[in-house]
Every structure is written in structure tokens, then in C-alpha cells.
Amino acid sequence: MIEALRRSALRASGVLIRWIILVAAVAALVATMTAIVGYDPWVALGSLWHGSLGTQYAVLSATLVRATPLMLTGLAVTLAFTAGLMNIGAEGQLLAGATAAVAVGLATGQSASRLVTVPLELVLGGLAGALWAFIPAWWRQRFGVLEVISTIMMNFVALYLVGYLVRGPLQEPLHIYPQSEGLPAAARLPLLAAGMRLHWGFPIAVLCSLALWWALRFTAAGFRIRVLGMNPDAAVSAAQIDVRRTAMRAFLASGALAGLAGAIEVTGVTYSLYENLSPGYGYTAIAVALVGALNPLLTAVSSILFGALEAGAAAMQRDAGVPSVLASVVEASIILLLLAFRELRVPGSVLRRLRAWRPTASDRASATGDSMSGRS
Amino acid sequence: MTENPPALALEHIDKWFGAVQALSDASLLIRRGTIHAVLGENGAGKTTLMRVAYGMATPDRGVVRVHGRAVHLRSPADAIERGIGMVHQHFTLVPTMTVAENLALGRRGTLRSGEMGTVLGDLVSAVGSSVDLNARVNDLSVIAQQRLELLKVLTRNAETLILDEPTAVLAPAEADDLLRRLRGLADAGQSVVLVTHKLRDALRIADDVTVLRQGTISLASPRAEVNEDQLIEAMLGRRPDGSSASTRRVRTGSVLITARDVSIVDSRGLPRVRNATFEVHAGEIVGVAAVDGSGHGELLRAIAGRLPVTSGTLTLPTSVGFVPGDRHRDGLVLTMSLIENYLLKGAGATRGVIKWRDATAIAREIVRNFGVRVDGVGATAMTLSGGNQQRFIIGRELYGMPAALVAENPTRGLDIQATLEVRNRLVEACSEGVAIVFHSADLDEILAISDRVLVVYNGLVREVVPDADLVGRAMLGAA
């Protein structure tokens, strides 16, 4: 165990060094792009810093608030990728969780106390995310539909479903705005302290990160997930792992984490449901997880870096007039850089799948398993 | 033959891979309009020789002649240009493309489907039933895919066709059909090279036979002048008469593994093992002899509890160790440490929290007892040499003494020292009461350490007296 810890510490320090390079690269990228678009790069970088990490207010009311959904969806992606599952559907699972939480909150928030309502919202949000993940997981196992495609499609289904709900069954009583009624006080996550926007969702996300790290490192179930992701053939032959069951459980847990992110976002930040609830948290989550080298603890830290980038970009638009879409350009550049250089430690299987979307050995194994059990 | 030079001639070919000589002074003459069978055990050098003929490997010495003219084949494209085509054992089709697109692959210029149709019209009769140009390869049966491979070669005006184990993936009736078509092609003036280790196919259809053994030509003759016995001897070599029966243990242990009428059908619906019935006792080594694709792989996996049987009953002890044939793919997670690779064993059934301390101690014990040379058990499996990886796997599977051990080619790719060590481990475990079932591509190895021998041919399992000649014949399907 000491040995294992020593080696994972070594690996983590390698990642940290790359992060320093990454942050420097991001700063250079922002400066270059703002200069190209015609703004003063120093002013832009200054407001980026002030709006993200430069002041206590920025950290507690902007960066960490942004980081919370990124952390949970980042963990969802980390878990799925570790199992070798290309779950690109954290966005849809987040929306499913948000919808369930708002529905429950509106139904019980008036009568029940906060101690009942909030846990109920979070649990049902997680379940809704798991359910949204179950559909592509089932398709994959039953029909061989590649989850990388189906999860993306399910994102749009979720988005349009929310669009329908906030104009129909869940629309606010006046029927003017395409959004739900605001959650009652008893259905809201409390703030960590008065005068800041940071809510209890952040410590919950950090706890999830610790729990996932512990589960993947120290439990038999987590070990199975890692083996499955690294070598599905050995998972069957050497470890006699039930590949289908392990993959399904990992997929559901991944969906639950994303669903929890949605539930926390509506109960802690927006207090109501509307279409543009998420500025693509579920997609940014992929970058968060890859930058975090698919390590739950590093993913938590990386989500804060991304939270800072997004919060800083918003400040940059406010203070220096630089369009905040710049943040998206930077994020996309980071992903491209990562894929191009493959500097960070990502299991080979994930990268192979990113490059070639085709069924893997685990598919073949499970398909064989199917036909075998079907006949016997 | 002087006025009519051979369609393809490989003369005195040497080929080295590093320090290993794959071919030594190997020659092959393919006469026009004939079928030429190239026989040999796994690893005898058949594939290397064909790669030389098809421009995929350049010989270190020797000459390749096409119609008498010496040529330098630098790539398959060179070979195709000179009228040599090859159908590989593993198909080289693009599954998501149509038949027409696959035929067009690798050609130059514009694709005119009308033109393609006329070319095909003439050829289709040669390979069998009609082809739907617009069908996707995904949707084709295996035999249809093979016909397409053959068509692909024929549309490039190949005069000499090389087929590598073409019947390996086919059901018997399909194989017969293919062989008939090949005869038709030969009668029409084409030359066919049939690379196979199926003696029966070769005897039935070939005009000439060349046998390779350990990289050299051990026999080259017209089919009419050789009989089955001579071919078997040429393939397997002369052996010192039977490794004396005195070394064989008398079975005394109780029955551990019982198979009654066991059949296994693969995902394509083809039977791999048919009605196998046998027993394995504690404290004996049962060797499973077979040539590639006979169904022994599925049989071993079933005995190891890794593959469910389709019908019949297979009774297994609770603990069965498994040493898979492909250690990188099936035996280890190369990116994980040895501790984690030890934890793989039984990982499907463990619960709760991992006991890292215990696992580390056990991994150390395995490394020590089995002489695995490694820089600490925290090192990844990737950093080990092949022999040390295999030592670790065997150590892991024998740790805690399972009731039975199944091993597939346990000495593949190991040097002599490691090979002897692995064999000794198996014999040792056996003397401690473990029932051992193992397959080796090397018949000598099977005969060296087995108490009993099961031969699998075409899915049929039967026990054969452990004698080189008898086992060799049985695994090649000879009477």
C-alpha cells in the first residue's frame, strides 16, 4: 500500500508539473487571442485573474460555484472513462437530474421541511441521471449501439424535453417565461455562509471526489472497474469479471453523479428549471476529467481550474469587454492539445476509442456471452 | 518444364528475424495451372515463405522468379503488378463498405460501376454464386466474404493465387465448395498455392506438395508420388520412439473433471466442440493436441470455467487456475502493478475492501517462489520479460493450490531455460495432486510431460495413446 501510494504520488506530481505548463499555456493563449481580436492582453489577463482567483469574493462566489457542477460531471466522466465507457452524456444526465430535483422540490417544498426535501431532491436527481444513463447503457448491451453516439443524442433529447417541460407541465404559473416556478426556500440548498454564493453543493462534490477516489483504489468493485477499462479481455479471462454487470453499474453510477450535479445546480444556484441551465458543463466535464488524468482527486482540482477560467472569462467580458466565448475557445484548445500530445496519463483504451469509434473486445466478449447464455 | 518456366519460383530463400532463422534454403516451384499445397506445423515457416512471395518480406538470400524472370518484390503492390495475389487468413475487407467499394479499393482512376459489373460477370462464375455489388460486407456470411477476397484478387488479374489457411474459418461443406472452385481456377490456367496444415485438404486437391519443417523444406514432390505417412513424417519429423512409458504416472487420483456430451457453439452458430466426453483425475497431466482452429481453445476455456458450454454437462472443481495462451491480452493487465495483477485472480467474486497489505505480501511470495525477475512488486507487468510474465502468471494461478490448472501454450515465446522451468512447474504441481490440462502447439512438448493425450480435430475430442505417430495422425485428421 505504501508502495502504491508512493507511485500514485509520483504520478500526481507529474500531472501537477503539466498543470503548471497548462496554466501558463492558457494565459499565453488568452493573451494572444485577445491581442488578435484587438484588446489589450494585459487588461484582459488582469480581469481574468481578478474575476477568478484574485479576490476572496471571486473565489467563493464565482470560481467555486462554477466548479461545483464541473467537479461532479467531471467525476462522472472520470468514472465512465476509467471503466472504458465513452459516456459523453453527462450534459443530458445533468439535465435529467435537474428536472427531477425541481419537480420534487416544487411538489414537496411547500409542505415538508428542508431536512426532508433537499436530500430527496438530491437522491432523486441522482436516480434520474442514472436512469438517463441506463437507456444508452442498455442499448449498448442489448443492441451493440455505441454509447459515444447514443449518449450525445440523449443530451439533445434531454435538452428538448426540458424545453417542453418549461413551456408545459412545469411552466411558472403566469405562463410568461419558459422556466419553472422558483423553488421554495425549504427546497433550496443552504449557502455555506451569508454574503457569498457558495452553497453546500461544493462540499458535497468534494466528498464525492474523495469517495470515488477511495472506491476506485480500495474496493473490489472499484478494482473491477479499473481492470475492465484497462484490459477487458483479461477482465474476462484472468479475473472472471462479469463484464456486463460491472459496465452497467459503472455507467449507472456515472449517470448518477451527473444527475446529482444537475440537482445541486438547481437547488443551489438557479432555483428554477430552464433550458440554458447548463452552459455545457457536461461537455466541459470531458476536458476536466482528461486534465485530471482520470484521477478523482486531480479531477476535483482540475474542475476548480476550469471553474476559474469560466468565472474569469465572465469577468473579462464584464470589465474588459472581451467576449466570454473566448473561454470556450481556450477550453477546446486545451482538449485538442491534450489529445495531440497525449501527455496526461489516460488509459490507452479511452484514447483508442476517441480516435476509432468501434466495438471493443468487451463488446465481442459480451456478445459471445449473450449467444451462449441464450442457447444453454 | 524447361520451355515452360514455373509461374512462380522461390529459390534458396533465407530469412532471419533478429537472431532467429525463419527460413533456411527454402525453395518452392509453382507450375502453371496446378494447385500446390504448402504444408507445415505452426511456426514451420509457411507464412514467412508466403510473405516473401507476396512482397511483404524481403529475403536475406535467394531469388524470386515470376515466369522465369528474377524479380524484386518490394511490396504487395509489386507482387500484384506481377500477377501474384494473396487471400489472407484474416480478411482484409472494410466491413462498412459495399462489395463494389471493397473491390475498387487499391485501384486507380475513376470507379465505373458498369465497367466493374462486366469484369465481374466473367469472374463470378469462377468463384460461385452471384455477388450483390451493393451489399455491405458487414452483412455477408464468412464464405461470401472469402469469395469476395478471392474476387478482389482475381479482378486484379492475378495469375498466381496464394491462399493462407482458407478453410480454417469455414464449415466442412463450405470448405469442400471452396476447394472445388480452386480446382476450377487451376483448370482454367491459374496457379493456386494452398497454405494449410490440414493434411486431408492437401491430399485431396493438390497436384504438388511442399512440406516445411523448422524453416527448411523437408519434402517437395508431386502429390501422386507421396502418401499420407510420408507427409506426416515430413511435417512432424522423425522422433525417437515414444518417450518411454515408464515416466508416465499411473493415475490414482479421484475424478476431478467430468465432461459428458459437451458441445460448444460459437457466436456465429458454428460448432466448435462436439459431444466431448472425457474425465480428468487428480494428479495427472492431460495433454490436448490439436492444430489451430480445431476447437481446443474453446474446450480449454470451458474447462477453465471461462466459457459456458452450449449443451451437455461439464463438472468442474471449485478452483481452477487458468494460464491463457495470449498472456498480454488475456493473462495480465500490462499497465497495472504485479500486486494488482495478483489481485486479478478471482476479482470477479471478491467483495468489500481490498487488502493491499496481504496482496503485496502474496505478490512478493509469488515473485520469490517462482523466480520472477522484477524490480519490486510495484512495477507494472509491462516491465517484465515474457518469461518472467509467464512465471508470474503460473505462480499466481498455482498460488493456494487449485484443484485443477488449465494452460494454453504455456511455453510460447519463452527461451529454453524458461520453457524447462515452466514444464517443471506443471509436473511439480501435478505431483502435488493438481489435475492439469494443457495444450501446446508443440507436439513434442505434449508427449514429453503428459500422462494422457486428448486429440481435438474438427471439434471432436478423443483420447489417443501418447505416441508421436498416432497423435500426429489424429490431430491432422488422418485415419
Quickly list its features.
heterodimer; A: 376 residues; mainly alpha; ABC transporter involved in vitamin B12 uptake, BtuC; 15 helices; 76% helix; globular; disordered C terminus; B: 479 residues; alpha/beta; Rossmann fold; 2 domains; six-stranded mixed β-sheet; 16 helices; 33% helix
Explain this structure:
The complex is a heterodimer of chains A (376) and B (479). Chain A is 76% helix and 0% strand. With 376 residues, chain A is mainly alpha-helical. Chain A has one domain: ABC transporter involved in vitamin B12 uptake, BtuC (Orthogonal Bundle), CATH 1.10.3470. In chain A, helix 5 packs antiparallel against helix 10, helix 8 crosses helix 10 and helix 11 crosses helix 12 (296-320). The longest helix of chain A is centred in the N-terminal third of the chain and has 36 residues, at 2-37. The termini of chain A are far apart. Mean pLDDT of chain A is 86; it is low at 351-376. Chain B has 479 residues and is of the alpha/beta class. The two termini of chain B are 35 Å apart. Chain B folds into 2 domains: 8-236, 3-Layer(aba) Sandwich (Rossmann fold), CATH 3.40.50; 245-475, Rossmann fold (3-Layer(aba) Sandwich), CATH 3.40.50.300. In chain B, the strands form 4 sheets. Chain B has a 6-stranded mixed β-sheet, with helices on both faces. Residues 240-246 of chain B have low confidence and may be disordered. The A-B interface holds A 1, 3-4, 6-7, 217-221, 223-224, 226-227, 230-231, 233-242, 347-348, 361, 364, 367-373, 375-376 and B 265-267, 269, 301, 305-311, 322, 324, 326, 329-337, 339-340, 343-354, 356-357, 360, 376-378, 393.
List the helices and strands and how they pair.
The complex is a heterodimer of chains A (376) and B (479).
Chain A: H1 2-37, H2 41-54, H3 56-82, H4 90-108, H5 114-143, H6 147-165, H7 201-218, H8 220-230, H9 232-237, H10 243-270, H11 281-291, H12 296-320, H13 325-341, H14 348-355, H15 361-375
Helix pairs in contact in A: 1-2, 1-13, 2-3, 2-12, 3-7, 3-10, 3-11, 3-12, 4-5, 4-6, 4-10, 4-11, 5-6, 5-10, 7-8, 7-12, 8-10, 11-12, 11-13, 12-13
Chain B: E1 8-17, E2 20-30, E3 35-39, H1 46-53, E4 61-66, E5 69-71, H2 76-81, E6 84-87, H3 99-104, H4 113-127, H5 142-155, E7 160-164, H6 172-187, E8 191-196, H7 199-205, E9 208-213, E10 216-222, H8 228-236, E11 255-265, E12 271-281, E13 285-289, H9 296-303, E14 311-315, E15 320-323, H10 327-331, H11 338-343, H12 356-369, H13 386-398, E16 404-408, H14 416-431, E17 435-439, H15 443-449, E18 452-457, E19 460-464, H16 468-475
Parallel strand pairs in B: 3-8, 3-9, 6-7, 7-8, 13-17, 13-18, 15-16, 16-17
Antiparallel strand pairs in B: 1-2, 1-4, 4-5, 9-10, 11-12, 11-14, 18-19
